[in-house]
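Observation: inputs received (chain + magnesium ion).
Thought: call the complex predictor directly.
Action: predict_structure
Action Input:
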Amino acid sequence: MRTYTKKLSIIVPCYNEEESIPKFYEKAVQQETFFHAQDVELEFLFINDGSKDGTVREIKKLRERDERVHLVSFSRNFGKEAAILAGLERAKGDYSVLMDADLQDPPDLLPKMYEYIEQGYDSVATRRVDRKGEPPIRSFFARCFYGLMRKISKTEIVDGARDYRLMTRQVTDSILAMKEYNRFSKGIFGWVGYDTKWLEYENIKRVAGETKWSFWKLFLYSLDGIMAFSTAPLSIASVFGILFCIVAFVFMIFIFVKALLYGDPVAGWPSMMCIISLIGGVQLLCLGIMGQYMSKLYMEVKNRPKYLVKEEF
Ligand code: UDP
Ligand code: MG
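Observation:
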């Protein structure tokens, strides 16, 4: 058998993807002619993230045909972030690439991505230029999220960025050095830095099955992202505090002067109620924000395993 000097690890998180997996493999393996010519061999790491369908069966079928196929099967659904981590931890390649099983990350782009790595880039990332086929309300909130992130986080988080990314060993090791429990890949990629080449492509519909992201799941995920890569919300309490102090001071002078000039008629009950409930609301909001950060801290401190493996080959 021919030996190669370099290896590319293709990492594929799979959650209920029994239909997509054979289609994905068929497409991805077509790239081997290009890579073999470059003296690069391939390795496939399928991470089964607690699928309830025949995902594992499909991966085992592939293994019977192809020794380069590996499986890591989780004991339950731990989320895509955990699957990405498990894949990167096991990748033996000089290069690693993260790909979705649904062919929304086109394998034909791999040669182009590899060429940029050859040119000296440390990682090649992709972003989609449009959000075709997505509900408008979702696009709207996505845009708001990225706009907000740009303002409150020092880490660059690119709008429309996908997790489809080819990177060198060095970048992979840097990502693995980030041990946090609350993992937000889009932020982690930006945080590690290195020279990144961005490629753009139009949104592609998934080949089979349906998206695993409900609106609510995406919303919670965006909150995770904000909390993982920004501490700005924590300053809200201070900002409101200063603001209310100023307002209260001006108000105090106003009431004092008014009482001196016109005496002190019946106190303004409605205005007092408004102020009390406003300040009460702001205090609860700030407490809530602190609670959110504290809950993240709590999870980090517990230091639980980020995933559990049931089966692996
Ligand atoms: N995925 C996963 N665990 C999950 C959800 C998704 O491993 O809990 C995988 C899924 O199988 C797919 C990739 O992550 O390979 C992207 O998921 P999906 O296509 O649903 O997301 P979208 O492309 O719609 O953002
Ligand atoms: Mg998809």
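Thought: report the result.
Final Answer: The chain is about 50% helix and 15% strand. Residues 100, 102, 104, 206, 211 surround magnesium ion (ligand 2) (CB under 6 Å).
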